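Model: Ready when you are.
Researcher: Fold this.
Model:
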Amino acid sequence: MSLEFRFQSASTDYQKIQTELASLVENRTRLDAQLSENEMVKKEFAQLTPSNAVYKLVGPVLVPQEQNEAKTNVETRLEFIKSEMSLVLCPS
């Protein structure tokens, strides 16, 4: 095997690793932003009283939503985001 071929092969492998790393960093950044956003929503929900109205954005329309349903949705999203983050940190 020539030195030039080994260098070309190593260079190709390095480029693949760089691309994979960039993808992982992008995914992690997106998940961090989603986690932060959902944790802020959870904190806001903790301050609600039973008389406060909660709305969900569906397309261009705000639709009323039950507080308990909204809180459950946020908790579920937080669990999902955390599990996705663990996959990004430790890909198989």
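Researcher: Now this one.
Model:
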Amino acid sequence: MAPICLLCWVCSLLCVWSVVIGHPCVLDHQGWADCSGKSLQHVPSSLPRNITSLDLSFNSLIIPHHRTLLKHFPSLHSLNLSSNAKLTLSPAVFSNLGALRLLDLSSCGITYIHMDTFKGLGNLHTLLLRNNSLQELDAPFLLPLKALFHLDLRHNTLVSVDSWSLQLMETIPRVRLEGNPWVCDCSVRPLQHWLQRRRAVQVTCMLPPGLRGQEIAALDSQDLGCQIKQRFARELNTTQQITVTENNTTALPAGKGGRSWPYLVGFIVTAIGISILIALAAKCKLVQKNFASYRHRPLPEISSIGGSPMEDTSSWDRSSIPDAADLQAEDDDGFIEDNYIQPSEQLPTKEEQELHRSI
């Protein structure tokens, strides 16, 4: 009987103390403060700073933008903000709660989480986000939560999750994903493999209607339609490759013709140059041959026997008149180059030459 009376006395004292200090919260000697269901819009400023647990659920809290929440409670380990419909989470709103271990944000109508919302919560162990309206996971919001052990995402509006988010959640031992309207098509394969590795159950499909209620981890590729899509993609790639090859085959001659005309011109110029050089070489050989054929002296014009002497006979010298024997030795066939000696023409003898000189 005495313990019961003592407990009633303590409760009465706490109620009286709360009225005296001006806030509607209930406190206990272990540092727990219950402010649930008090229609609060702001956190009471008269709460003791050494409290370790604070329940602010079922209120109408409004957090100003770009301001921190509960800046005067550095020893807070547990914070319950569930069922605050007007709650908006700005970046770094919990940055001053470095000792926080549990954060309950269930049923707050949250649709988006900024990547810096949980900045400063390096010691957070449990994060409860169930019964919200999250349609997708912005994976970077998990990066500051280095010590996170339990993540509750049940009963949101998640339809898919990307591979990066799954990779970040791989380090969290306990993740709850039940109750989301998952779309079970080929894009859910990464989530399926993730669930199979963790042996998670009760994560079921919502769409398509034929797979509603079936566990994602138990489905095969044919159920998800992956084989048909992969075969269609393979056929499409083959068709595209054939089309590209045909286009290249059709288009390349024109392109090559447009780009190779300098080579054609160079080839023609080179061929013409080589032809000119060959012609010049042949011409030089012909000139040399003709020059060599005209190196012999032409025969002097001598009048026939008994005729009148030629003009300027005084300019003749004995040495300039070739000897008949030499001429006969040079060519016995009667031809000297192009000058043919007629049979009627005879070379003058030595007596005739001396007679002609004496005259």
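Researcher: Key takeaway?
Model: Residues 226-293 form the longest helix (68 residues).
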